[in-house]
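Duplicate of #3305? Posting structure anyway:
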């Protein structure tokens, strides 16, 4: 990320820079990203580093291309497909981010 962002996500901790951070978060899955977002809301001046081993963010939640009927490739979400009514914290995050949820039949 650029210098204007208070949050930096890196996959290689062993750079020549000896930057200093107020907070280091290990993992850029939903928990790590939510922690960084909550910290940024409460203390915008914190310098936050998120360290991630994979080449993408999202943890076990990600979107991939799946071949559907015919030759068309469609986006398909994997990982966190289901959120139950009792999972109020993640439902609040989804609402805050403006993401849609769909009713699941029981």
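Output from current build:
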């Amino acid at each position: 990320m650029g210098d204007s962002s208070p949050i930096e996500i890196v996959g290689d901790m062993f750079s020549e820079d000896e930057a200093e951070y107020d907070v280091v978060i290990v993992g850029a899955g939903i928990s790590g990203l939510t922690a960084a977002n909550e910290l940024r809301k409460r203390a915008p001046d914190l310098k936050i580093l998120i360290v991630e081993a994979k080449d993408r963010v999202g943890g076990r939640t990600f979107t991939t291309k799946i071949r559907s009927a015919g030759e068309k490739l469609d986006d398909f979400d994997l990982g966190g497909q289901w959120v139950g009514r009792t999972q109020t914290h993640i439902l609040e995050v989804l609402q805050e981010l403006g993401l849609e949820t769909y009713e699941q039949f029981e």
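Confirmed duplicate; merging threads. Residues 7-96 form a domain with the FAD/NAD(P)-binding domain fold (CATH 3.50.50.60). The longest helix spans residues 30-42.
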